[in-house]
Design brief:
Layout lengths: L2 E5 L22 H8 L4 E4 L9 H7 L4 E4 L7 H10 L3 E5 L5 H8 L4 H14 L3 E8 L7 H10 L4 E6 L4 H5 L1 H4 L7 H14 L2 E5 L18 E4 L4 H9 L22 H7 L2 H4 L4 H8 L18 H10 L17 E6 L4 H12 L5 E6 L6 H8 L6 E6 L9 H5 L6 E6 L5 H15 L2 E8 L2 H10 L8 E4 L4 H6 L7 H14 L6 E3 L2 E3 L5
Parallel strand pairs: 1-2, 1-8, 2-3, 3-4, 4-5, 5-6, 6-7, 9-10, 10-11, 11-12, 12-13, 13-14
Antiparallel strand pairs: 9-16, 15-16
Helix pairs in contact: 6-9
Bound molecules: iron/sulfur cluster.
Length: 521
């Protein structure tokens, strides 16, 4: 559908709870409206077009016009017949819900729904083609299918569903009136199913493409054009109908099929419901610049559509993870480095990393940070992720028992040993950590040179069975030396470490300074 909505008046009977801008302007002359319409078929809109006394003359002056009206004045056959004879090609009645009370409340007029339905029946009996136009609002959105059923009952040929823009009262009462985009998919799908069954054309206007299921056609951004006379008194009205699009989505499907999320909606409700529908690569790029999106989780955005919630529920046993079916599995182990940055920066990074969905959050880096103990205490309370501390933990050896006690909740401490002389202190710390905070301990040896290989040849046996070796990246000399070692647990550990080091690196930036860990879990 491509149509021109010709605004013929701003006058209304009573202000509705919708998006009329509420700006008054004098009715334009028929000549000026004809000039705007040129030779295009137009839909006469307002305000309320039937409030114009010269409506029959206006209809006669335009090429096959469609009249869009509340139809309150059209319940008798003679009026309807007069409009038809004047040239009205089609009657489009504004009826926002099949439930009379809901429609009446929205338009602020008791009995309005019944009169609108009556007008539709009268028109159909006169052989006039009819349609229904409904602005989708929060209270009426769940009942779209009923409206299509009603359209079939009154022999309307089409139903036009229109987005409520944040103009006029709808702008001031958006929370009460504007439906959330993520919740429209089901009602639109139901309405679409009824429309197919009843052979009614269903048109959805002014919505982003991703709001409706694929089976529903959403008219493109240029599918409906508002037209106004070029008069100074109408300039304000014309401006009120301009629609801006925020946070362009690029190629999904992008123009010309979709102009992206409407700026008025994003300003009020954020872009999460749109971002969740973009292809993943595009999301990752856009979110860095967005101001009102949620923090991405491994580049993924939580599902916002009921279809996905249902799919998750059907799967069961996923403990409510809203990302279970989203592309991009979370890493098993995510490593976050403590750096010398301010505490608040580190805290935010740790919290964000904990939300990535990894099984293990491994904290590494500068444990001599002045706030290390406080940050670890907070991490000990993170839920849904196993927290480990790993690396040179010597700065933590000085923690008092009371401070260690507060770290209960951290699962494991993996101590890096640079020299055999560190073994006793590490053992003492791990004993205390286990006793005070139930933190299990693992030791690993860092081998950076052939000297290190020799140094640990005897000492490695003093470590527990789960001790392992980590080699430096430039391991060629170690590779050469290792075969000369006698078979032992130590040699096996070095060979395993060399194999890991030789494997293609899968260290991968997920969030700033949070890395997948390539150490054994
Ligand atoms: S994600 Fe953006 S471009 Fe894609 S359909 Fe939705 S609003 Fe349109």
């Amino acid at each position: 559908v491509t149509e021109t909505l010709l605004h013929v008046t701003t006058h209304v009977r009573v202000p509705a709870r919708l998006d009329d801008p509420g700006i008054d302007a004098p009715d334009p002359s028929i000549a000026s409206l004809v000039a705007v319409a040129s030779n295009d078929p137009v839909v006469l809109v307002g305000g309320e077009p039937t409030l114009r006394a010269d409506l029959p003359e206006l209809l006669a002056a335009l090429p096959s016009p469609i009249l869009c009206t509340d139809a309150l004045a059209l319940t008798n056959a003679s009026t309807m017949r007069a409009l038809r004879d004047a040239g009205m090609r089609k009657l489009r009645v504004s009826l926002h819900a099949a439930r009379p009370a809901a429609h009446d409340w929205l338009v602020g007029q008791a009995g309005a729904a019944k009169r609108a339905m009556r007008a539709l029946v009268v028109a159909a009996e006169l052989g006039i083609e009819t349609e229904i136009e409904a602005t989708i609002t929060r209270p009426t959105a769940p009942h779209l299918a009923e409206l299509v059923t009603l359209a079939a009952g009154v022999r309307a040929r089409a139903v036009h569903l229109v987005r409520l823009t944040h103009r006029g009262l709808a702008g001031r009462e958006a929370i009460m009136l504007v439906p959330r985009l993520a919740l429209l998919e089901d009602p639109l799908a139901e309405a679409g199913a009824v429309a197919i069954r009843e052979r009614i054309a269903l048109h959805v206007h002014d919505f982003p493409r991703c709001v409706a299921p694929r089976s529903i056609r959403v008219s493109p951004p240029d599918g409906r054009r508002h037209a106004f006379v070029d008069a100074p008194e109408w300039a304000l009205v014309s401006r009120a109908y301009e629609v801006a699009f925020g946070e362009r989505c690029g190629a999904c499907p992008g123009l010309p099929a979709c102009a992206g999320p409407p700026a008025d909606y994003v300003a009020r409700f954020g872009a999460v419901e749109i971002v969740s529908e973009r292809p993943r690569v595009e999301r990752a790029r856009d979110e860095s610049a967005a101001t009102n999106t949620v923090a991405p989780r491994a580049g993924r955005t939580p599902a916002t559509r009921l279809r996905e919630v249902r799919a998750v529920v059907r799967r069961g046993g996923v403990e409510g993870d809203p990302l279970i079916d989203r592309a991009g599995a979370p890493p098993d182990v995510l490593r976050v480095a403590l750096t010398t940055e301010p505490t608040r920066v580190l805290r935010a990074r740790l919290i964000r990393a904990a939300q990535e969905g990894a099984r293990v959050l491994r904290i590494v880096g500068a444990f001599d940070h002045p706030s290390a103990a406080a940050l670890l205490r907070e991490c000990a309370h993170l839920r849904g992720v196993a927290v480990e501390i790993a690396g040179d933990l010597r700065p933590l050896f000085a923690l008092a028992d009371a401070q260690l006690f507060e770290l209960e909740g951290i699962e494991r401490a993996r101590i890096a040993l640079g020299d055999p002389s560190e073994i006793d202190a590490a053992n003492a710390f791990l004993d205390r950590a286990l006793r005070m905070a139930k933190i299990r301990g693992t030791r690993f040896v860092v081998v950076r040179s052939t000297d290190d290989v020799e140094r640990w040849r005897e000492a490695f046996d003093r470590l527990d069975d789960d001790a392992f070796v980590r080699v430096a990246r430039d391991e060629s000399a170690i590779t050469t030396l290792t075969p000369s070692l006698p078979p032992s647990r130590y040699r096996d550990a070095i060979e395993r470490a060399l194999a890991r080091a030789a494997a293609p690196s899968f260290v991968d930036a997920i969030v700033e300074n949070a890395l997948r860990d390539d150490e054994p879990a």
